[in-house]
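Reply to dn_fold:

You asked what the input looked like. This is it:
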Amino acid sequence: MPFFVYGTLRPGQFRHDLFLRGRTLNEEPARLHGAVLYEGPGYPYAVEEPGGVVTGCLVTARPEAYPTLLAELDRLEGYAPGDPDNLYERLARDVERTSGGTVRAWVYVAAPRVTARLRAHGTRIDSGDWVDGR
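and this is what came back:
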């Protein structure tokens, strides 16, 4: 499955070159419906919420790079399956291509404890676009 990235992994952002450069087949603008963004410490968090829209990029990894990239992104995002201390959860969600159509993609969204903290005390990015909102 491709990845939907909305923060530091987007093209032009500092982690894009570190993790994705030369490892992708395709990168295209996309939107995630049913989520909103919150500011984090130098990176954003997506939080699932009906009616929200997050702007980002749909990234399709090269097949030979996929297993390693998936493991590296899980580590980067502080995600391990079933770990209650996760910062993010990796979920399969439908993502809308701006060119038309939808595709199922991996999305890292704020883990439940992080979501509760953000909703209580976080700064929401009303535009849904972390890059334009900076």
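The two ends are 29 Å apart (CA to CA).
Hope that clears it up.
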